Amino acid sequence: MTETDLRELGERALEEIAGAGDEAELERLRLLYLGRRSGLISRRAAALAQLPPERRSELGREFNRAKQAVEEALGRRQAELALGAAPPAPAGMDLSWPRRALERGHQHPVARLIREIEDVAAALGFESVRGPEVEDDRHNFELLNLPPEHPARDTHDTFYLEGPAQGWLLRTHTSPVQLRTMMAGPPPYRIIVPGRVYRRDNPDPTHNPVFFQVEGLCVDEGVSLADLKGTLTYLIGAIFGPERGVRLRASYFPYTEPSLEADVSCGFCRGGGCRSCLGKGWIEILGSGMVHPQVLRNAGLDPERYSGFAFGMGPDRIAALKYGLEDIRDLYENDLRLLEGF
Ligand SMILES: [Zn+2]
What we know:
342 residues; BirA Bifunctional Protein, domain 2; 11 helices; 9 strands; 19% strand; binds zinc ion
């Protein structure tokens, strides 16, 4: 056996295959050359194995080339014969016209981030819950320690409904779902609440009157600040990656005591300070705290027996940070040229 011998065998096979007139003949040629035991090419494999190693590798290359060329030719001729056997195209239809590229869609970056947060929280035993977007003052404010005269209400520029819906409002946060859950049945609760919220903000690069929040609540006997810290550290690490630092700072919210804000180290400067983080090296991403005893009482729970924590974050803001968007409104304008890039 020589290279020439193999090459000639291959060429003869290709010629015969290209001339095969129907599928039966093609099958005959396939057996003749590639049949497992007695095929003209397959038989050479056994001879190849008897050769000394250097010779075997040289000839082996030629052998593989010939075998592959024959396999491809068989496939090609089969496709040609199948096409020839198909009924003729209707008049006026050109089957050789290239097809239009298929476009694949994907989830919106905010939807994907919400799904991601839900998945991470689910691994910690949090169940996803939805609530109404039209709320009453009681659930949106009063039961959350925000009575009518409370100054913190000013930070929630609220859309109040008029006409027959007078007395109702568009929820300014997802927190009313905490109350609805706690009032619906006894603890323990571990819920994650994604949804739209509304505030009368003027649209600008960091504000939009409609945005998303994801809220978490955990209430049971013996839930402590350490549980909150552990949950947040895990959650933030899972969303941003383990290389980013997490920092908790004391803060104030009317419905938690104590209250904490969580920062993640800036992904651009790695904590050194840059334009993105306004030189701070950290970016605020989440508010949280231990559920205020009065809120538990408002929900009909005994704060002597139960305790819990809550946290809330803005997936739009996190998506903007994650993808380096300068203007949060880019996420809502549905410009496909931009969204395709995510
Ligand atoms: Zn930075």
